[in-house]
Write a structure and sequence with these properties.
The chain is α+β, with helices and mostly antiparallel strands and about 230 residues long. The protein contains nine helices and ten strands. The chain has two domains: about 55 residues, Phosphorylase Kinase, domain 1 (2-Layer Sandwich), CATH 3.30.200.20; about 160 residues, Alpha-Beta Complex (Aminoglycoside 3'-phosphotransferase, Chain: A, domain 2), CATH 3.90.1200.10. Helices cover about 40% and strands about 20% of the residues. A four-stranded antiparallel beta sheet has the order 1-2-4-3, with helices on one face.
Length: about 230
Amino acid sequence: MAVVLDTDNGPVFLKGLPVDHPRRWTQDMEAVINPYVRHLGPRLLWRVRDEWDILGFEYIKGRHADPTPGSADLPKVVETISHVGEIPCPSLPLKEATSRWRNYVDDSLDLALLDGDRLLHTDYNPLNILMAEGRALLVDWAWPTRGAGWIDPACLVLRIMSYGHTAEQAEAVVADLSAWRQADPRGLQVFAEANARFWAGAAADNPADWPVRMAAAAQSWHAYRLNQD
């Protein structure tokens, strides 16, 4: 469920899942991380748990980000990612980057390159980026992750490639981020290969338009990374 509720005190955005839903745990993640990221997105106002687990968020009027080449939204998205990269990951039971991508990396030393102490959003689907108040706000913190700071810029690279950017164009979008400049080239190559494997499987399981586009983007980015120093 995702609805806007009109109340006497103004609108509230609700999102909820039945308590027996297999992904109800994403509600826990959004609730636990909100105090640390409310300066980057809507504040969580309340939570109700009965037959449904429902989160009530501050309603912010805006529009979804335009991820296509030349979009004026992208510099604002990058600025928000820079602020995310400043947040040390809080001591919470969050997912680890090394666990999330373990099944797609063969070598343990390569997998260790994904380790780090930064808080990551990781899901830069434009539906999760709200352009409002002159900036880019992040919603849907269902997958907060602890890992290397360059992973979030890399996730944006892959996502905007699926909307028409070449690998070179996409990497240019994030080129000025300090986390990106500090990335180990081998780590980027490992992450690109892991995503190529993940999205190939996702597209095979669900041959809808968006996972197929993500799979193609991931393959293209991996090929590009193999040719970088």
